[in-house]
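Lecture 7 notes: from sequence to structure.

We start with a single chain of 248 residues. Read the sequence below before looking at the structure.
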Amino acid sequence: MDTALPLAGHCVLVTGGAKRLGAAIGRRLHAAGANVVVHYHQSRPEADALVDEFDRARAGSALAVRADLHDVDSLPALVEAAVGRFGRLDVLVNNASTFYPTPVGSITRAQFDDLLGTNLRAPLFLSQAAAPALRAARGLIINMVDIHGRRPLKAHPVYSAAKAGLVMLTRSLARELGPEVRVNAIAPGPVLWPERDLDAALKDEIIAKTALKRSGSPDDIARTAYFFAVEAPYVTGQVIAVDGGRSL
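Now the structure, written as tokens:
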């Protein structure tokens, strides 16, 4: 293995990989030598720009693939696109997520289906589709969970429940897919604010409740993904909170 490029020749599929945390993870793993498949749904300009960025650094090293993660029947095509282009799949990052408030008195069936579908059902069925290729590569699944999968977030009962399910799914898949496939999770804290911006006072309150008294960066999450992919061959079924001590 080239120690400068420890993931050279490997293939990584990142759902929701066109921007925000997904793009940061893709950049970090691509810099380590991986070929990256950038999944997107509605963010084609960002996906194409990221693939262009990767291809300028290393020609032919990236691919953008569109899929609606709610359509379970379409998920195997994501894996087929990765294996068809790069001949293998080594790392699946279940990063795509849906997040918005659902106060208990006004939860709708559509909201429930959306939040569970993106945050729990899609990671399960995409992992199922990817399992044969990951077994062949002795690969890795990284699930993006949340500190609120263990500590409920007010006004977000469905989201919190979905992420709690993904925490258990991580542990269950680690048992089901071992010894060939490792399965771990990252639980971000105040690293990247929601796209629907929060007011400054609430941000300050959240930061004040972290042990480190500051927010993190997307690269803090990406470094943790790199750790799982490169430096943790004997770690599986684990969740690392990257939250500055917010969950203490």
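The chain is about 45% helix and 15% strand. Keep this in mind for problem set 3.
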